[in-house]
Amino acid sequence: MQGNGPRVAPDLSDVGVARPAAPIHGSIVDPSSRMMPINRPVRIVMKDGTTITGRRLNEDTYTVQLIDEKERLRSIAKSDTRSYVVETKSPMPSYATRLTADEISDLVAYLLTLKG
After folding, report:
1. CATH code at 46?
2. Quick one: how far is CA 27 from the chain centroid?
3. How many domains does the chain contain in total?
């Protein structure tokens, strides 16, 4: 939030404006089902065999921009790739069994206060 924390995860500074309570709750208990398409993790294998993983930030017909696992901004030309996979499983774990129902409710209430 507000520039703190890893860049490989989405910024939550204004999550209380951008998302209502139910989707936030869903993201906590089942993160893969609530991932926004632009935040999906990607795995790219370059023509030279190098593998790059990260969080997709932007994509067009010819390029994909991402934050890699070392928090570097990368712009990759699709013509330089051997394969490009957009993952459907979130790297964030589910907190459905890690937090109590009250703790999840408190977390959702807190996240709803974040207005940027």
Report:
1. 2.30.30.100
2. 11
3. 1
**Closest by Cα among 20, 21, 18, 22 to 38:** 18
Domain region containing 42: 1-92
Position 97 scores a pLDDT of 95
Mean pLDDT, all residues of the chain:
91
- Angstrom CA distances, 58 to 31, 62, 97, stand at 20, 11, 33
Q: Kindly report the backbone phi and psi dihedral angles of residue 84, in degrees, each rounded to the nearest multiple of 5, phi listed first.
A: -140, 115
CA dihedral 14, 17, 18, 24 (to 10 degrees): 90
Q: Is residue 86 part of a domain?
A: yes
Question: How far apart are the C-alpha atoms of 48 and 61, rounded to whole Å?
Answer: 21
pTM of the model: 0.73
C-alpha dist (Å) from residue 113 to 13, 21, 61, 116:
9, 11, 37, 9
C-alpha 67 chain-centroid distance: 10
